[in-house]
Design a protein that fits this description.
Strand content: 25-35%
Shape: globular
Strand order of the largest sheet: 4-3-6-7-8-5
Radius of gyration: 17 Å
CATH architecture: Beta Barrel
Number of strands: 8
Largest sheet: 6 strands, antiparallel
Helix content: 10-25%
Number of domains: 1
CATH superfamily: Trypsin-like serine proteases
Number of helices: 2
């Protein structure tokens, strides 16, 4: 955690050991990507620093960020769709949340965009191959909310096609059950 340049030690990194990984039961590598979420239990907690900070979760569907709200996605994914290499330095893209139907229209009939997904981007910047698993974070009232996890999108990484993210709100109960179950086992 806290890494910026994957090939340089900057002193901001926290190397933490993983105790357990929980993968959602519905997950498969199929095209629909339903259940594209996992939780990682660390052996020790991360330290809050300038480079590593927690984000809030939205707990109910009524709190969704509306289309047009500008959020941020980060990752080391490709910036050039014709090159397979990932980036050395963490990149951030500002991406607007999109209307669900508008997003579905970009991918139909090849792919389905389910309600358990949120779309963002398609307006000049986007997530790309190699960014999967990274955050979609939105700011509201001086707080950052982890809204999505980079899941999939157009394989050519075109900036005018939106990225599709796992909507965390759809998995709040699953996450709570895992955390409660795990606490009972400790």
């Amino acid at each position: 955690m806290g890494d910026h340049d994957i090939y340089q030690r900057e002193g901001t990194e926290q190397l933490l050991k993983v105790e357990t990984i929980y993968v959602h039961d519905a997950y498969s590598r199929s095209v629909d990507r339903v259940g594209d979420i996992g939780l990682i239990k660390l052996r020790q907690p991360a330290r809050d620093t300038k480079w590593v900070q927690p984000a809030c979760l939205l707990t109910n569907d009524e709190e969704r960020f509306q289309p047009g709200h500008v959020c941020a996605t980060t990752g080391w994914g490709r910036t050039n769709p014709d090159v397979d290499d990932i980036e050395d330095v963490l990149r951030q893209a500002e991406v607007p949340v999109l209307d669900h139907n508008m997003c579905q229209n970009n991918y139909w009939p090849m792919y389905n965009v389910f309600d358990s997904m949120v779309c963002a981007g398609g307006m000049g910047s986007n997530s790309c191959k190699g960014d999967s698993g990274g955050p979609l974070v939105c700011r509201k009232n001086n707080r950052y909310y982890l809204v999505g996890i980079t899941s999939w999108g157009d394989t050519r990484c075109k900036p005018n096609i939106p990225g599709v993210y796992t909507r965390l709100q759809s998995y709040i109960t699953w996450m709570a059950n895992i955390m409660n179950q795990d606490q009972c086992n400790d």
